[in-house]
């Protein structure tokens, strides 16, 4: 086209109409394809990643839905799902912390309910440490115990609430002064525990249930220091109107006892790619219930 | 000095032991206060939950019938442990927008596919009448005697149905008959006994679906709203305050809409005691809710 040429109004209208038609068809194609695809946000803890992978595997292989997983911190996951950019968020721990979610109303999400409960954190020891020597927090006041532990408790720097509760405990109980809580990152703390267990040394660590260390090592709690929490699947508010009943009902019915979450985490720690498949093969009745509901029970 | 320390440890251990014992006793004695709106399906579900919590889990339960606004406020401030009828996302939207996530322990949907609707008996041929738009057909209009059978004037569904009468040209010449819930059900029963055609204003879940074979009409303009999901909301510290077996039961509690219809139908017949009868008729489902994966093995 000659840029100096005067444009033809009729041609302009036709061009606009064609562009509009193309835009509309592209929009409707994308819109129609949406119920086959789920953008799933997950927070970066192993326990959340392993459960999210199990959900993806079931959605993809049994319900024909394509899942795109995105790993982000809880604040971002919540923002994405509340705005409708994301469809699903796996890993919200409740009761929710004020700084994470205080601004969101019940209407902003479709809370699909707990995926599992019995989530607690506290101080723990390997089970080979004799219970009659170190069975409760009070045993930490014993001089022999203090020496075996080198006056140290292995902590995670990221677990702020647990750090705070542990420090309060040390301040409150007479005889616990002098202990030092090491605030390590999670990898360093886990390797400390692993090294101690390899040598059957005594060690007191921050312990979370569920978690990789809790799943793979034989451990016990000396004291549970946090309130029990549940972990939820959270969807965007119009999720149920947009996705087929078999998808929404599967997610509403899905609930894992804590022992099975630990089993899944252990499988995930061994091999991320095969964990979900192995779990599904090991628990066909439970997966059938999630997919078929009461019909599979009667 | 050593004696003092031993005495201190003993006293502390005793205090801990008594503390745990007191907690156990307290948990066992704790009464679960549940709120159920005085609707047939809500009362039916409340009766079932009371039965399971009392007989299978061994806890005291007390049920009251607050309206929705009172229930949202009472659960958020801890005066009520559990509210059974949070309709989401549209029907109770005002409350959902007013309260924060942090105010509740959300146990997720206990059933889905709830909705306001217009329905016909299933024997009315689907190729003749499957949508509100099909009411324009003169043959259909004649079969229905130009009537849509409604319930009480002022009920939410009647207000919307009134608007539909204006909005759909297919409804020109039809009358929306005001009656009551009981009169609507009587008219439906009478029509079914005589194999006559009838259109009624209805909502799901409802005992009529358990009693008769019905079909919902499509409503293309979506004036009756989309499907709703019904959640159980607990007070925010519910999981910490009640033993795991209670919160696990509530987390697993989920029913298909057909079963909610049947439960409502049963409740309309026998009232209190519905939960016990339903539980005896469906032991496998109750076993799963109470015992989880152990019930499947």
Overview of the molecule:
The complex is a heterodimer of chains A (298) and B (297). Chain A is built from 13 helices and 9 strands. By secondary structure, chain A is α/β, with parallel strands linked by helices. In chain A, strands 1, 2, 3, 4, 7, 8 and 9 form a 7-stranded mixed beta sheet that branches. In chain A, strand 5 (152-156), helix 6 and strand 6 (180-184) form a beta-alpha-beta unit. Chain A is elongated. By secondary structure, chain B is of the alpha/beta class. Chain B has helices at 2-29, 40-56, 68-76, 93-98, 138-143, 156-167, 181-193, 207-211, 238-241, 244-252, 257-270, 274-281, 283-291, and strands at residues 31-35, 60-64, 82-88, 104-121, 147-149, 175-177, 200-204, 214-216, 228-235. In chain B, the strands form 2 sheets. In chain B, strands 1, 2, 3, 4, 7, 8 and 9 form a 7-stranded mixed beta sheet that branches. A two-stranded parallel ribbon of chain B has the order 5-6. In chain B, helix 2 (40-56) crosses helix 11 and helix 2 crosses helix 12 (274-281). Classes of the chains: A alpha/beta (298), B alpha/beta (297). Chains A and B meet through strand 4, strand 9, helix 10 and helix 13 of A and helix 1, helix 4, strand 4, strand 9 and helix 10 of B.
């Amino acid at each position: 086209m000659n840029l100096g040429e005067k444009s033809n109004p009729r041609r302009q209208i036709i061009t606009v109409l064609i562009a509009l038609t193309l835009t509309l068809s592209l929009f409707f194609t994308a819109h129609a394809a949406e119920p086959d695809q789920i953008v799933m946000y997950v927070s970066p803890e192993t326990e959340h990643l392993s459960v999210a992978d199990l959900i993806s595997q079931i959605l993809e292989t049994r319900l024909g839905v394509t899942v795109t997983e995105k790993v982000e911190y809880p604040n971002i996951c919540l923002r994405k799902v509340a705005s409708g950019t994301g469809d699903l968020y796996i890993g919200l721990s409740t009761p929710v912390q004020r700084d994470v979610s205080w601004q969101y109303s019940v209407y902003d999400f479709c809370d699909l309910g707990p995926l599992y409960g019995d989530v607690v954190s506290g101080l723990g020891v390997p089970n080979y440490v004799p219970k009659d020597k170190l069975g409760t927090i009070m045993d930490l006041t014993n001089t022999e115990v203090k020496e075996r532990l080198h006056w140290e408790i292995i902590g995670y720097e990221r677990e702020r609430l647990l750090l705070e509760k542990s420090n309060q405990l040390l301040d409150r109980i007479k005889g616990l002064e002098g202990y030092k809580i090491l605030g390590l990152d999670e990898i360093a703390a886990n390797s400390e525990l692993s090294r101690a267990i390899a040598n059957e040394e005594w060690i007191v660590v921050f312990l979370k249930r569920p978690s990789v260390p809790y799943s793979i090592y034989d451990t016990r709690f000396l004291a549970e220091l946090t309130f029990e929490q549940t972990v939820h699947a959270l969807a965007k508010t119009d999720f149920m109107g947009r996705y087929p009943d078999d998808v929404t009902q599967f997610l509403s019915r899905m609930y894992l006892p804590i022992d099975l979450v630990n089993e899944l985490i252990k499988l995930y720690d061994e091999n991320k790619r095969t964990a979900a498949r192995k779990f599904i093969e090991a628990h066909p009745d439970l997966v059938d219930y999630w997919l078929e509901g009461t019909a599979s029970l009667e | 000095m050593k004696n003092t320390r031993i005495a201190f440890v003993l006293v502390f251990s005793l205090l801990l032991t008594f503390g745990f014992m007191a907690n156990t006793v307290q948990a066992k004695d704790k009464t679960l206060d549940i709120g159920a709106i005085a609707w047939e399906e809500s009362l039916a579900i409340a009766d079932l939950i009371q039965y399971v919590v009392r007989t299978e889990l061994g806890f005291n339960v007390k049920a009251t019938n607050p309206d929705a606004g009172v229930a949202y406020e009472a659960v958020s401030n801890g005066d009520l442990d559990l509210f059974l009828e949070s309709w989401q996302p549209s029907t109770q939207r005002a409350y959902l927008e007013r309260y924060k996530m942090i105010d509740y322990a959300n146990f997720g949907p206990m059933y889905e596919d709830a909705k306001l609707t217009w329905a016909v008996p299933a024997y009315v041929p689907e190729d003749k009448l499957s949508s509100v738009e099909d009411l324009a057909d003169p043959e259909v209009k004649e079969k229905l005697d130009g009537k849509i059978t409604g319930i009480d004037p002022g009920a939410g569904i009647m207000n919307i149905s009134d608007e539909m009468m204006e909005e759909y040209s297919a409804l020109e010449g039809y009358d929306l008959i005001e009656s009551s819930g009981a009169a609507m059900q009587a008219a439906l029963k009478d029509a079914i006994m005589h194999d006559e055609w009838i259109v009624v204003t209805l909502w799901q879940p409802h005992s009529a679906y358990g009693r008769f074979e019905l079909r919902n009409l499509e409503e293309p303009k979506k004036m009756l709203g989309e499907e709703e999901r019904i959640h159980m909301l607990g007070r925010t510290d519910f999981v910490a305050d009640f033993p795991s077996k209670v919160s696990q039961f509530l987390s697993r509690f989920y029913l298909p809409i057909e079963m909610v219809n049947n439960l409502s139908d049963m409740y309309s017949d026998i009232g209190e005691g519905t939960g016990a009868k339903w539980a005896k008729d469906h032991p496998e489902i109750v076993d799963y809710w109470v015992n989880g994966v152990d019930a499947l093995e």
